[in-house]
Specification:
single chain; alpha/beta; Rossmann fold; 2 domains; eight-stranded mixed β-sheet; 32% helix; binds iron/sulfur cluster
């Protein structure tokens, strides 16, 4: 059984001008020990999906439809008090801005200890200290640094500390939202390598959010490509990376350089993502699509199977 199964999740933001349709009809599954990538340009709704999973949406955000089944339990109807028991232990998150996510006035070790004590209040202080030291070691930080404050850590170390915190209560699923984005590319690569290694070593079930599909293909078994609040392509990560079907996925791949492949001119996707207060009729990608047809402006394509390994695409070119 899937450890996490999201079915028809629809999350909108209420504004004075109406509902911003940030994520609509999102469905995917994460099996035990599997990593799933969520990819797309900024503003496509991938972080909204992440925040919905933990039910930590900013003011105005509301889950309007769908189910989030964590080991069979639907999180959508749960109260804030019930969700506090699920966060860290059921689903935990590694945020992208490590300095903002850590409290600057508490020692790093104490903040990791807090995540353990919230779920296991009866554990002795000495055992908590031991577990914090082990967690820091797991993410490649010298355990004695538990006594440091966040400002005494480098950006990469802070991101590692956040990963340690996300692992503290032994969660069923870890969500990593653009980990290392604010760091330089070398440290970013180290953080991604650490996540990959932890996933293999600890058998983590993980959701990795990134705008870079090549990072996802290296780390994840599955990928969901999001555009303008909807999943437009879903399936095996390597298959989609090598043979993308949706014109948006094709554009996304061409927009990133390949280190190993031959040198080619990078092409950006013309235009910009639509206003989600009032998305285009039919296919939301139609104003930017090089293959647009009449039907695309009238009829919204649905995700349908194309090829094998559960590969699904929502595009009129294939159906
Ligand atoms: Fe392009 Fe039409 Fe496919 Fe949308 S449905 S991606 S507009 S071809």
């Amino acid at each position: 059984m899937a450890v996490l199964s999201v079915e028809g999740l629809t999350t909108n933001y209420k504004t004075l001008r109406g509902w911003v349709r940030a994520a609509e009809d999102i469905s995917f599954e994460v099996e035990q020990g599997e990593a799933m990538g969520l990819a797309g340009e900024s503003g496509c709704g991938k972080s909204t999906v992440a925040l919905s999973l933990l039910k930590i949406l900013p003011p105005g955000g509301k889950i309007r439809k769908g189910k989030i089944l964590l080991s069979g339990q639907d999180l959508v109807p749960l109260s804030e008090k019930e969700m506090r028991k699920i966060r860290w232990k059921g689903i935990s998150i590694v945020f992208q801005g490590a300095m903002n996510a850590l409290n600057p006035v508490f020692k790093v070790g104490d903040q990791i200890a807090e995540a353990i004590k919230t779920h296991e209040p009866k554990v002795a202080d000495s055992e908590v200290r031991e577990r914090v030291a082990k967690l820091l070691e797991t993410v490649g930080i010298e355990p004695s640094r538990a006594n440091n404050y966040p400002h005494e850590f480098s950006g990469g170390m802070r991101q590692r500390a956040l990963i340690a915190m996300a692992l503290a209560a032994d969660p069923s699923v870890v969500v990593a939202d653009e980990p290392g984005t604010a760091l330089d590319v070398i440290v970013q690569a180290q953080i991604l390598r650490l996540l990959r290694d932890l996933k293999d070593r600890l058998g983590l079930s993980m959701i990795l959010i990134s705008h870079d599909l090549s990072i996802i293909a290296e780390t994840c078994e599955k990928v969901a490509i999001m555009y303008a609040g909807r999943i437009v392509e879903y399936g095996d990560a390597v298959t989609i990376f090598k043979d993308p079907k949706h014109p948006y996925t094709q554009g996304l791949i061409k927009a990133f350089p390949s280190i190993k492949g031959e040198k080619v001119r990078l092409t950006s996707i013309p235009g910009s993502p639509p206003d989600l207060l009032n998305p285009p009729a039919g296919c939301r990608f139609n104003p930017r699509c090089p293959f647009v047809m009449d039907v695309c402006k009238r009829v919204e394509p649905i995700l349908e199977e194309h090829g094998d390994k559960g590969h699904t695409v929502s595009c009129h070119l294939y159906h």
